Amino acid sequence: MNIFKSKRFFLILLILVIEFVLTLFSQLIFSSLSYLAFINHLSVISLLFFNFGLIVFIVQGGFFDGVVYSFKRFVRATRKKTFQEEDTEAPMAEYRHRDGKRSFIIWPLLLDSLFLFLLSIFLSWSL
Known about the structure:
With 127 residues, the chain is mostly helical. It has helices spanning 7-30, 35-60, 65-80, 106-125. The longest helix has 26 residues, at 35-60.
C-alpha cells in the first residue's frame, strides 16, 4: 500500500495545512509578524485542535454512557418516590454499548496537533 495514496496521509497533510493557515491568519489579525508571535500562535492553535480531538475521542469511546445511565436511574427513582424499592433498576437496554470504533479523523488530528505543539516548544527553546 502506497502511503501517499492513503486517506490518513491526506488527512494528516490537510490538518497540518489548516493549522498553519489558522496560525498565520491569527498572527496577522492579533499581532505583528514575528518569530515569537508565530510560535505562540502555533502552540495555542495546536493545543485547541488537540483538545478538540481529545474531547471527541472521549465522547466516542463511551466514557460518559455509564454516567448518563445512572442519571436516568436516579431520575426514574425520584419521580416514583421509591428510593427503598428494589425494582428501581432501569432496563439495561437503555445503557448504550459501543463497539469501540472511532472516527477516522481522530488519530490524525491528535498526532498532528501534538506534533505541532512539540514543534512549537522546540522552536521556543531555539530562540
